[in-house]
Each structure stands twice: as C-alpha cells, then as structure tokens.
Design brief:
Length: 302
C-alpha cells in the first residue's frame, strides 16, 4: 500500500476518535470557565521573535524562529501566556479581564510520552488583580474541571515562587527537577557551573521548607470554596516552575497527591510580564492544561 510523506518528528496527524475526544474535553472545560465569567480570545500562531524572547529563561532555546521573505524575524508561539500579555498591552481591556484560549503551541524539544513539538494548550487567566483570591479562583477552576472530566483523585500542588527570590535561578531550576532527576546528578551539574556545596545544600533540605503566608491565604480561600487540603490540593516545597516570569503562587495539577507524578496542567502568578509590554504594572495569574497529557490521564469512559 502506498503511503504519503511522513510528518516531521514531533508533529502528527490526529485521527477522528482522538480529535472527537479532544473536542469533548475542551468543551467541558470551556463550559466551566464561561460559567465563571471567562471570555474567549484568539491570538496569532506567529509572533515577532522579539515579543517572545527574553521571557522564558533557559527554555527560550526551544522557540521555533525563522525569517520571512521580507527578512523579519518571526517565531511560532511557545505558549499562550506571552501572547496574552501582548494582547492586554495592545487592547487595554477593562480590568479585571478573565479570558481563556485554546490553541496550538510549538517547542523544539525531544518528543516523549505526552509531549510533542506541536500540541494544544487550554489557557485561562485573570488579569488586573493582585488579590490572592484570584489565585485561588484559578486553582479551583482547574480542580473543578478535573473533577468534571472524571479525575476524582487529581490534586493541585501549590507553592510560592517568592520563597526562591534570593536563590540563584540555576538552583531554582534544579529544585524543580528533584522529582525527575536524581539529586546526585543535579548536584554534579551545579558544581560544574561553579556552585559550592554550601550553595546547593538547599536541595537536600527543601522538604523542610515551611509554606509561605501567601500559600496559607490561598489555601484558606480554597477551603472557603468547599475544597480540602490533601484531598483537592497540597503544599509542595519542591515546586518551583522553570519559567522565569512567575512571581508568586505557582501551581501544578497532579493525577494524585504524589508530587513526583507527571503534571496535567500548571500555572501561577506573573505580575511583571504584562508590564514589559504595557510599561506599567499589570498583575495576573493563570493556568494551562496540556491537552495530550490530560487526555492520557482520563478514565476510559470520559
């Protein structure tokens, strides 16, 4: 049987059964968001490279960049958050602005289970308020969406990026990898970058970290909404999130209360990102589901 040409590595065709399941899942999450007052927007798949670069830290190397026929430096969007920041600075919507967006994003990384170079993200964000009740609102919507999809054991891991404020970013990134990479490997990598034993001692003691006052407040807001600690959410001192733009609450949705399990969605507070484009402080907090990993976590009947 003759076959058509292959797709590039990390890119794929989605067959009808899976495409139908994608649509069903997206519709269920969208319904939760619209009930909570979120509105949809869409942004271009391609942005100027300068819009995206300088926002992601070491992950920036994964951005797909190219030049068009006019020599303009362009890039495929890496996520939907930086385009949102540009959108807010461009259109200055009435605040608070609560939006959701579904779209393809592109990352030049090695494909693996649940990870492709092109994949669908479902983002939702609250822009314009620094109140921690908004952080809890975002987390609660993500948990509610998981429950509606049949993920009865899913729990939200929560931490505060501010507790890492005085720690070198390379060490913060190592902390975020503790459940994925052996500590000895991380220590070796950090020593190779010139860090001393005293600098990286935090890797061994991170479990002793106590939750910040802001995390306690977020937990109180979640409990006001009927959610319970260690059933719906939990404190994870190893959660650091690798992207540089996070400034406060950080979130990862896990299939269970095991912090080492693969995340099915993540997000947090980023109070400085929009200001890069808007030239003024515009606080924001958001969350993103990765559709492929979410689908893989669902019970068969969903």
């Amino acid at each position: 049987m003759q076959k058509g040409p292959p797709t590039p590595k990390g890119f794929r065709d989605i067959q009808p059964d899976l495409a139908r399941k994608h649509r069903q899942v997206l519709n269920k999450i969208a319904a939760v968001l619209e009930e909570s007052g979120f509105v949809p927007i869409e942004t271009p798949t391609i942005e100027f490279s300068s819009t995206l670069k300088g926002k992601y830290g070491e992950e920036e190397r994964l951005i797909y960049e190219f030049k068009d026929r006019g020599g303009r430096e362009l890039a495929l969007r890496y996520d939907l958050t930086v385009p949102l920041a540009r959108y807010v600075a461009t259109y200055n919507p009435k605040l608070p602005f609560r939006r959701y967006q579904i779209g393809q994003v592109f990352r030049g990384e090695n494909p693996q289970a649940g990870r492709w170079r092109e994949f669908t993200q479902f983002d939702f964000d609250s822009v314009g308020s620094d109140a921690l009740v908004e952080d809890a609102k975002i987390a609660a919507i993500a948990i509610k969406s998981a429950r509606i999809l049949g993920l009865d054991s899913a729990q939200m891991a929560v931490n505060d990026r501010k507790v890492f404020a005085n720690i070198h970013i390379d060490i913060v990134r190592a902390i975020d990898k503790l459940h994925k990479v052996e500590i000895g490997v991380l220590e070796k990598e950090l020593k190779g970058k010139g860090f001393k034993d005293s600098d990286i001692e935090i890797l061994k003691n991170i479990d002793k970290t106590i939750m910040s006052a802001d995390v306690k407040k977020v937990f109180a807001h979640l409990e006001e909404q009927g959610l319970k600690q260690n059933r719906d959410f939990f404190f994870d001192p190893t959660l650091a999130r690798g992207l540089d733009y996070y400034t406060g609450t950080i979130l990862e949705l896990k299939p269970s209360g095991d912090p080492a399990s693969l995340s099915i969605g993540a997000g947090g507070r980023y109070d400085n990102l929009i200001g890069i484009f808007a030239k003024k402080q515009v606080p924001a907090v958001g969350f993103s589901f990765g559709l492929d990993r979410l689908i893989e976590s669902l019970p068969d009947e969903t």
